[in-house]
Design brief:
alpha+beta, seven-stranded mixed β-sheet
Length: 408
């Protein structure tokens, strides 16, 4: 009987304990309120998340528009960011957050006292690759790297290369069997060649504007054109006087001892053939169609093509523009194949071993800024792009040219 009472007592205590754990109506109401508040917070977070997702989508579109599909490795974007960072550094301005990494990585260590900020190597190689393909003459000449401020004596052939057969037995004394090739030379010292453009300061401070990059690439091409002008014309001045600035060395149309062949009255295939024949007579190397290149102006090329068409001769594909070869020679057009004389500017035709032209180039480009020049507004800056280069045409006797007195 005692055991039964004890067991019943334990069960009553157990039930009482469980009853104590049952929440009161106040607790239930509080929990319901907390659940509603939590649901409201979740709903608000979902709304915020939607806004963030929209912002991310908009940012992606902006980045793709500004950077291209290749993202931060895009060449144009990298160049644009560098130019803007260099501009801020030049003016001592605080870098925007999106430029600070560029400034730390490129600007602080690549300042060149001789010519502005060196283009960072990460993009310079790609830009140089593009520049090497630009122009008509620049891709054909022989280029080598010579740091700015240095000089070098570059040899050139005075006579054609001379190699001989020798009947001397093996082990005989090493002596000359015949006269060797004669060599001359020019001393090259790369000089600063540059171009500039005036830009409003706003284009250097906006994230999504790539005008500085576009202008930089155009200026690089302008520098290449100026180098080509020097190699061909050598001199740019008034058609009525021989005064003005000169290139570091004379070009083909101004150097002494270049063979001047008979002037051509008009542009005809017969007169062009006569010019080639006269050139070969004066220098036998001119007959080498692998080494020599015909260079003339676009106006002469178009006139000659029309003349050949009238005579029933097909000179290349009319839809393909410039004509790769003429009488076996590579054919190149350039606006610089003109020469000023005391009365007029004449179109010329040139036969040249253009690959023998040696260009000493420091292999880099520089970007500089000047916002303190006279006559400029306060909100404008000069953007200047340049490189160091010098050239020599080698032995002048290996080149020939003739002028056309009229195009038709």
């Amino acid at each position: 009987m005692g055991d039964q009472i004890l067991d019943l007592t334990n069960k009553v205590q157990d039930v009482a304990a469980k009853l104590d754990k049952i929440p009161s109506i106040e607790d239930v109401q509080k929990a319901q309120a907390d659940a509603k508040a939590a649901a409201a917070r979740v709903e608000a977070l979902n709304g915020d998340l939607g806004v963030v997702q929209n912002d991310i989508a908009a940012m992606r579109q902006m980045l793709e528009a500004g950077l291209g599909k290749s993202g931060a490795q895009d060449l144009e974007h990298e160049m644009d960011m560098f130019v803007k960072a260099a501009w801020h550094a030049n003016r001592g301005r605080k870098m925007p957050q999106w430029l600070e990494q560029k400034a730390a990585q490129f600007i602080s260590t690549d300042v060149d006292a001789q010519g502005g900020y060196l283009v960072p190597r990460s993009v310079s190689d790609q830009i140089i690759e593009l520049v090497l393909r630009h122009g008509q003459i620049w891709p054909l000449v022989t280029k080598f790297t010579l740091p700015a401020g240095n000089t070098i004596r570059v040899p050139n052939e005075v006579t054609l290369a001379n190699t001989v057969w020798s009947r001397r037995s093996q082990g005989a004394a090493l002596t000359e069997s015949d006269a060797g090739t004669e060599w001359g030379g020019d001393t090259l010292n790369p000089q600063y060649c540059h171009g500039f453009v005036k830009l409003a300061n706003e284009v250097f401070t906006a994230f999504g504007i790539s005008i500085p990059n576009a202008m930089t690439m155009q200026l690089l091409k302008q520098v290449v054109r100026r180098l080509e002008n020097g190699i061909i014309a050598g001199y740019v001045g008034s058609p009525t006087q021989y005064t003005g600035r000169t290139a570091p060395h004379n070009g083909i149309l101004r150097a002494t001892n270049v063979y001047e062949q008979s002037a051509a009255a008009t542009v005809t295939y017969a007169l062009v053939s006569k010019f080639i024949g006269e050139s070969i007579v004066d220098h036998e190397g001119c007959g080498d169609t692998d080494e020599y290149v015909i260079i003339t102006t676009d106006a002469v090329a178009q006139t000659l093509k029309g003349t050949l068409t009238q005579q029933g001769m097909n000179w290349g594909d009319v839809s393909q523009g410039p004509f790769p070869r003429l009488q076996g020679y590579r054919f190149v057009t350039t606006p610089f194949a003109v020469k000023a004389n005391p009365t007029a500017v004449r179109n010329h035709i040139i036969l040249s071993p253009i690959e023998k032209v040696m260009v000493a180039w420091d292999g880099a480009f520089r970007v500089d800024f000047n916002d303190r020049g006279d006559g400029w507004n306060d909100n404008e800056t000069w953007l200047k792009v340049g490189t160091y280069a010098d050239f020599t045409i080698g032995n002048p006797y290996m080149h020939s040219y003739a002028r056309f007195t009229a195009l038709a």
